[in-house]
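Box 3.1 A note on notation
Throughout this textbook, protein chains are presented in two layers. The first layer is the amino acid sequence; the second is a C-alpha coordinate string describing backbone geometry. Keep the layers aligned when reading.
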Amino acid sequence: MYGDNKIILGFCLVIILFCFVKKGYELLIYKSKITNIVLFVQIILGLILFLIFKYSIFTLLILTALIFLSHVFIIDSKDYLIPYSSLIALLIIGIINLFVNNDFIYTNIYDKIIGFIFFLILYGVLSFIQYKIKKDFLGGGDLMLFCVVVLFLGSVVTFGGIFIGSVLALIVRMFKKDNKIIPFGPYLSIGFILSLIICNYIFLI
Protein backbone atom coordinates (compact mmCIF):
# COMPACT_ATOMS: atom_id res chain seq x y z
CA MET A 1 0.00 0.00 0.00
CA TYR A 2 2.81 2.38 0.90
CA GLY A 3 4.50 1.59 -2.41
CA ASP A 4 1.29 2.44 -4.28
CA ASN A 5 1.12 5.79 -2.47
CA LYS A 6 4.71 6.56 -3.47
CA ILE A 7 3.85 5.84 -7.11
CA ILE A 8 0.81 8.14 -6.93
CA LEU A 9 2.85 10.84 -5.21
CA GLY A 10 5.54 10.57 -7.85
CA PHE A 11 2.97 10.76 -10.65
CA CYS A 12 1.38 13.86 -9.08
CA LEU A 13 4.82 15.44 -8.67
CA VAL A 14 5.54 14.98 -12.38
CA ILE A 15 2.18 16.59 -13.21
CA ILE A 16 2.75 19.59 -10.95
CA LEU A 17 6.25 20.19 -12.34
CA PHE A 18 4.92 20.00 -15.90
CA CYS A 19 2.05 22.40 -15.10
CA PHE A 20 4.38 24.81 -13.29
CA VAL A 21 6.80 24.99 -16.21
CA LYS A 22 4.06 25.18 -18.88
CA LYS A 23 1.84 27.74 -17.16
CA GLY A 24 4.83 29.67 -15.83
CA TYR A 25 6.13 30.05 -19.38
CA GLU A 26 2.69 31.09 -20.67
CA LEU A 27 2.36 33.72 -17.96
CA LEU A 28 5.85 35.11 -18.53
CA ILE A 29 5.21 35.68 -22.23
CA TYR A 30 1.78 37.16 -21.49
CA LYS A 31 3.44 40.54 -20.83
CA SER A 32 1.21 41.56 -17.95
CA LYS A 33 2.51 44.01 -15.35
CA ILE A 34 1.23 41.87 -12.49
CA THR A 35 2.63 38.57 -13.79
CA ASN A 36 5.90 38.69 -11.83
CA ILE A 37 4.10 39.68 -8.64
CA VAL A 38 1.56 36.86 -9.01
CA LEU A 39 4.28 34.30 -9.69
CA PHE A 40 6.17 35.46 -6.58
CA VAL A 41 3.02 35.29 -4.42
CA GLN A 42 2.26 31.88 -5.94
CA ILE A 43 5.61 30.55 -4.69
CA ILE A 44 5.08 32.04 -1.20
CA LEU A 45 1.56 30.60 -0.93
CA GLY A 46 2.86 27.27 -2.21
CA LEU A 47 5.40 27.14 0.62
CA ILE A 48 2.72 28.05 3.19
CA LEU A 49 0.37 25.34 1.89
CA PHE A 50 3.22 22.83 1.92
CA LEU A 51 3.92 23.65 5.58
CA ILE A 52 0.22 23.24 6.42
CA PHE A 53 -0.52 19.99 4.60
CA LYS A 54 3.01 18.47 4.54
CA TYR A 55 4.06 16.07 1.77
CA SER A 56 0.94 14.30 0.53
CA ILE A 57 -1.13 13.72 -2.57
CA PHE A 58 -3.51 16.50 -1.50
CA THR A 59 -0.58 18.91 -1.14
CA LEU A 60 0.57 18.22 -4.68
CA LEU A 61 -2.98 18.60 -5.98
CA ILE A 62 -3.52 21.91 -4.17
CA LEU A 63 -0.18 23.22 -5.46
CA THR A 64 -1.22 22.27 -8.99
CA ALA A 65 -4.57 24.01 -8.45
CA LEU A 66 -2.70 27.09 -7.22
CA ILE A 67 -0.93 27.31 -10.57
CA PHE A 68 -4.22 27.36 -12.46
CA LEU A 69 -5.82 29.81 -10.01
CA SER A 70 -2.86 32.10 -10.66
CA HIS A 71 -3.54 31.68 -14.36
CA VAL A 72 -7.17 32.67 -13.76
CA PHE A 73 -6.00 35.71 -11.76
CA ILE A 74 -3.77 37.08 -14.51
CA ILE A 75 -5.94 36.31 -17.56
CA ASP A 76 -9.16 37.58 -15.97
CA SER A 77 -7.40 40.73 -14.73
CA LYS A 78 -6.34 41.66 -18.26
CA ASP A 79 -8.93 40.10 -20.59
CA TYR A 80 -12.01 39.88 -18.32
CA LEU A 81 -12.49 36.19 -18.95
CA ILE A 82 -11.67 32.95 -17.16
CA PRO A 83 -9.88 30.52 -19.51
CA TYR A 84 -11.67 27.23 -20.08
CA SER A 85 -8.34 25.40 -20.00
CA SER A 86 -7.88 26.37 -16.34
CA LEU A 87 -11.48 25.46 -15.47
CA ILE A 88 -11.11 22.04 -17.08
CA ALA A 89 -7.79 21.49 -15.29
CA LEU A 90 -9.33 22.44 -11.93
CA LEU A 91 -12.28 20.12 -12.65
CA ILE A 92 -9.90 17.22 -13.32
CA ILE A 93 -8.00 18.01 -10.11
CA GLY A 94 -11.29 18.02 -8.21
CA ILE A 95 -12.33 14.65 -9.63
CA ILE A 96 -8.94 13.13 -8.78
CA ASN A 97 -9.22 14.59 -5.29
CA LEU A 98 -12.49 12.73 -4.71
CA PHE A 99 -10.57 9.46 -4.81
CA VAL A 100 -7.87 10.65 -2.41
CA ASN A 101 -8.24 10.04 1.31
CA ASN A 102 -8.33 13.67 2.42
CA ASP A 103 -11.51 14.00 4.48
CA PHE A 104 -11.14 16.98 6.78
CA ILE A 105 -13.29 18.02 9.71
CA TYR A 106 -14.94 20.69 7.55
CA THR A 107 -15.56 18.64 4.40
CA ASN A 108 -15.86 15.15 2.93
CA ILE A 109 -16.71 13.52 -0.38
CA TYR A 110 -20.47 13.91 0.12
CA ASP A 111 -20.13 17.59 0.94
CA LYS A 112 -18.10 18.12 -2.23
CA ILE A 113 -20.52 16.28 -4.51
CA ILE A 114 -23.58 18.02 -3.01
CA GLY A 115 -21.80 21.37 -3.29
CA PHE A 116 -20.94 20.67 -6.92
CA ILE A 117 -24.57 19.85 -7.74
CA PHE A 118 -25.75 22.97 -5.88
CA PHE A 119 -23.44 25.32 -7.78
CA LEU A 120 -24.23 23.55 -11.05
CA ILE A 121 -27.94 24.24 -10.50
CA LEU A 122 -27.11 27.81 -9.44
CA TYR A 123 -25.10 28.23 -12.65
CA GLY A 124 -28.08 27.11 -14.72
CA VAL A 125 -30.59 29.31 -12.86
CA LEU A 126 -28.46 32.47 -12.92
CA SER A 127 -27.51 31.93 -16.56
CA PHE A 128 -31.22 31.63 -17.44
CA ILE A 129 -32.07 34.79 -15.46
CA GLN A 130 -29.25 36.75 -17.10
CA TYR A 131 -30.40 35.54 -20.51
CA LYS A 132 -33.97 36.66 -19.84
CA ILE A 133 -33.11 40.11 -18.48
CA LYS A 134 -30.30 40.46 -21.06
CA LYS A 135 -27.87 41.70 -18.42
CA ASP A 136 -24.84 40.00 -16.92
CA PHE A 137 -24.38 40.59 -13.20
CA LEU A 138 -22.07 37.61 -12.72
CA GLY A 139 -19.86 36.07 -15.39
CA GLY A 140 -20.37 32.49 -16.51
CA GLY A 141 -16.70 31.79 -15.86
CA ASP A 142 -17.09 32.88 -12.23
CA LEU A 143 -20.06 30.53 -11.79
CA MET A 144 -18.16 27.63 -13.34
CA LEU A 145 -15.22 28.43 -11.05
CA PHE A 146 -17.55 27.93 -8.07
CA CYS A 147 -18.47 24.48 -9.40
CA VAL A 148 -14.95 23.19 -9.92
CA VAL A 149 -13.52 24.65 -6.69
CA VAL A 150 -16.25 23.20 -4.44
CA LEU A 151 -15.53 19.77 -5.92
CA PHE A 152 -11.94 20.16 -4.80
CA LEU A 153 -12.09 22.13 -1.53
CA GLY A 154 -15.62 21.57 -0.24
CA SER A 155 -18.51 23.94 0.48
CA VAL A 156 -17.12 25.61 3.64
CA VAL A 157 -13.90 26.74 1.94
CA THR A 158 -15.76 27.68 -1.26
CA PHE A 159 -18.37 29.85 0.46
CA GLY A 160 -15.62 31.37 2.59
CA GLY A 161 -13.63 32.11 -0.56
CA ILE A 162 -16.63 33.72 -2.23
CA PHE A 163 -17.16 35.92 0.83
CA ILE A 164 -13.49 36.95 1.06
CA GLY A 165 -13.31 37.55 -2.70
CA SER A 166 -16.47 39.67 -2.60
CA VAL A 167 -15.12 41.79 0.26
CA LEU A 168 -11.81 42.33 -1.54
CA ALA A 169 -13.59 43.24 -4.80
CA LEU A 170 -15.86 45.66 -2.92
CA ILE A 171 -12.89 47.36 -1.24
CA VAL A 172 -11.09 47.76 -4.57
CA ARG A 173 -14.27 49.07 -6.17
CA MET A 174 -14.63 51.72 -3.45
CA PHE A 175 -11.19 53.12 -4.25
CA LYS A 176 -11.50 53.00 -8.05
CA LYS A 177 -12.21 56.36 -9.65
CA ASP A 178 -13.51 55.04 -12.98
CA ASN A 179 -16.60 52.96 -13.71
CA LYS A 180 -14.80 50.10 -15.44
CA ILE A 181 -16.00 46.59 -14.66
CA ILE A 182 -13.97 44.79 -12.02
CA PRO A 183 -13.14 41.17 -12.91
CA PHE A 184 -14.26 38.86 -10.10
CA GLY A 185 -11.94 35.93 -10.92
CA PRO A 186 -8.76 37.41 -9.39
CA TYR A 187 -10.45 38.11 -6.06
CA LEU A 188 -12.06 34.67 -6.04
CA SER A 189 -8.66 33.07 -6.60
CA ILE A 190 -7.23 34.95 -3.62
CA GLY A 191 -10.34 34.25 -1.56
CA PHE A 192 -10.28 30.49 -2.09
CA ILE A 193 -6.64 30.14 -1.01
CA LEU A 194 -7.06 32.42 2.02
CA SER A 195 -10.25 30.58 2.96
CA LEU A 196 -8.43 27.23 2.80
CA ILE A 197 -5.67 28.51 5.08
CA ILE A 198 -8.12 30.13 7.51
CA CYS A 199 -10.39 27.06 7.68
CA ASN A 200 -7.46 24.81 8.53
CA TYR A 201 -6.34 27.24 11.23
CA ILE A 202 -9.85 27.54 12.74
CA PHE A 203 -10.70 23.84 12.70
CA LEU A 204 -7.30 22.66 13.93
CA ILE A 205 -6.97 24.93 16.99
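The two ends are 31 Å apart (CA to CA). The helical segments are 2-28, 35-53, 57-79, 84-98, 109-133, 140-153, 155-175, 185-204.
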